[in-house]
């Protein structure tokens, strides 16, 4: 059993990564249904929260069926971060996660996200202040370091633990790498193997097959796995990993009809939550994966991603289902 504070999780839990414009309530709900043990919100700007910016506040929406759920915030100003903690607490999440890993320029340029990797002392002092400011467990998501020459993740993780961080998720790339090249899990394993570490250490980056999740568990000895891009448009991935852990075999992949039904549910949930315009627009990024591997799919995809009317998108789903129905196309292996 793995514990984040007093939250009990199964052995080697699977966590849905916080992904901007992806990890919203509809998608989190579908991932939870399909085996995610912990889900995280999109990252939320502390400055946006204290200004009461509509988009930031909307991201605070969480639902009982998601629990345990973590709200992730980012920022580099102590006062703003502490005030945002007070705002976040009112929505009663199970976990507050600090983003010290986002590599995007507009975040980094403000010294937030992965930008704070240039100032480990600030990273530690911010974490300590937030731990003291709330009774909720504080966790951290970060990267190996700013660049290859500044990787100090073993020291950083230990210092974060020492000021009260309850778990750490580490993406196996530096900020300089962005999302290029391969994730390196060896330094994450060094964090876990540090005899002074006693909080959970979760790995993140490039887990897109059950075998890779198993490697992260068995070869690198990590406490759990945070899954991001592999789940986009494919929430079944969590259960596929769990089935593989139990049996050593792949779970039967969903039929095209089942994939279509999931996409249909996803779109309807998004419309119910965001309204017809944003709901249609912000679900588009999932369709390529929902229908991955379907031959001659471009014609259908163009209808799905260019129409602003939900009726047209649902009609495109119906066409795909009618055409391919019970066909199964493997996503893995």
UniProtKB/TrEMBL annotation:
Catalysis: reaction(s): a 5,6-dihydrouridine in tRNA + NADP(+) = a uridine in tRNA + NADPH + H(+); a 5,6-dihydrouridine in tRNA + NAD(+) = a uridine in tRNA + NADH + H(+)
Protein name: tRNA-dihydrouridine synthase
Residues the entry annotates as binding FMN: 72, 141, 171, 228-229
Top-level division of the source organism's lineage: Bacteria
Keywords: Flavoprotein, FMN, NADP, Nucleotide-binding, Oxidoreductase, RNA-binding, tRNA processing, tRNA-binding
UniProt KW tRNA-binding keyword: yes
Pfam families found in the cross-reference section: Dus (PF01207)
Main function: Catalyzes the synthesis of 5,6-dihydrouridine (D), a modified base found in the D-loop of most tRNAs, via the reduction of the C5-C6 double bond in target uridines.
Assigned protein family: Belongs to the dus family.
MF-aspect GO terms: flavin adenine dinucleotide binding; tRNA binding; tRNA dihydrouridine synthase activity
Active-site residue numbers: 102
Source organism: Tenacibaculum adriaticum
